[in-house]
Amino acid sequence: MDYRTFGDSDLKTSVIGFGGWPMGRGHYGSFDEDEVVRAIHAAIDNGITLFDTAAVYGWGEGEKLLGKALKGKRDQVVLVSKGGLTWDEPGAGSGRNSSKEHLTNGLEESLQNLQTDYLDLYLIHWPDESRPYSEPMQAFADFQSQGKIRQGGVSNFTPAMMQESRETFKIVTNQVGYHLFDFRPEAEIMPFCRENGMGIMAYGSLAHGLLTGSMSPDTKFEDDDWRRSLMAFGQPLFKGDTFLANLRKVDALKEIAASRDMSIAQLALSWVISEPVVSVGLVGARTPAEIEENVTAANWIMTDSEREELRAVVTA
Questions:
Q1: The domain made up of 3-315 is a member of CATH 3.30.300.180
Q2: How is the chain split into domains, by residue range?
Q3: Which of 57, 133, 178, 203 is catalytic?
Q4: For the chain, which terminal residue's Cβ has fewer other Cβ atoms within 10 angstroms, N or C?
């Protein structure tokens, strides 16, 4: 396993991180909780140090499951959670609230769910444009001085939002969607992070399952799987003719992966972590076998020309 820091900070992470969204019940369909716990333990055994979750994943239940799995292992991991969202009841849509009061209450609840007294990294999950970003950032400064967080960051923020945030608190990361079917962060977000000593946390490294190689034209999503909308963060990844075209591109990538004795998932994850400004590529896993497959991706850091070869396949 390779390890990197978040930009110029002293916070270090394994280059592959454990993404906790799929273990938040009600988001990615059904799963076996005991198997997820075994996957978390397998991740630690294989050198993965960063575990990412959020208050909204399973409406608190995802954090609780992770906290249960990490009991007795807390000092071996970099623990990340995200706050700043609201919901009326489990399963309901979420709103945004980055007020100091809401973040303070949310952090305390996350700490309780995760069975810890501090987070290594705490993020604003989505920007709350109803208030100046100085408000949540001042809250982060207070949390840090209280020893409740080591570092703070944001998720899904534009460069202008990051700039305003950094005037109050030195955020170390922006967590954004980045994978072989989504190059959008490369235009402005990555250059900003590179120039300001920040690291990217890349979520959706396997294109939300598309790059696992397990999907077909007959793929159907469970009722409680967010991908049932066929859209993924503004992209019609799983919708109609676009989905069929994407599957053909996945088949082409499988051939390239096979020529390297790799799986399509390993190829896709290697592509993400081969971008230097990416501190960690997040990938969800719910079985130990998935962990064993994912960690192998760290063995191949691609050259620029190799990355461009794959980009050409999906943009053709």
A1: no
A2: 3-315
A3: 57
A4: C
Torsion angle (degrees, nearest 10) of CA 128, 285, 121, 139: 30
Write the DSSP string, the chain. --EEESTTSS-EEESEEEE-GGGSTTSB----HHHHHHHHHHHHHTT--EEE--TTGGGGHHHHHHHHHTTTTGGGSEEEEEE-EE-SSTTS--EE---HHHHHHHHHHHHHHHT-S-EEEEEESS--TTS-THHHHHHHHHHHHTTSEEEEEEES--HHHHHHHHTTS---EEEEE-BTTB-GGGTTHHHHHHHTT-EEEEE-TTGGGGGGS---TT----TTBGGGGS-BTTB-TTSHHHHHHHHHHHHHHHHHHHHTT--HHHHHHHHHHTSTTEEEEEEE-SSHHHHHHHHGGGG----HHHHHHHHHHHH-
- Cα–Cα distance measured from residue 104 to residue 18, given in angstroms and rounded to the nearest whole number: 25
Residues in the chain: 316
pTM: 0.96
Maximum CA pair distance of the chain? Answer: 54
Tell me if residue 203 is catalytic: no
Look up residue 270 and give its two tokens. 């290697």
Which residues does residue 278 pair with via DSSP β-bridges, in sequence order? Answer: 200
Q: Whole-angstrom Cα distance, residue 52 to residue 20? A: 5
* 214/220 Cα distance (integer angstroms): 12
Pair of tokens at residue 295: 């960690």
Give the number of other Cβ atoms within 10 Å of residue 34's Cβ: 9
Q: In sequence order, what DSSP letters do the residues of 240-255 get, joined into one string? A: HHHHHHHHHHHHHHHH
**Alpha carbons 91 and 24: distance in angstroms, whole number:** 11
Encode pLDDT of 93-117 as tens digits: 899 999 999 999 999 999 999 999 9
Q: What is the rounded CA–CA span in Å between residue 221 and residue 227? A: 7
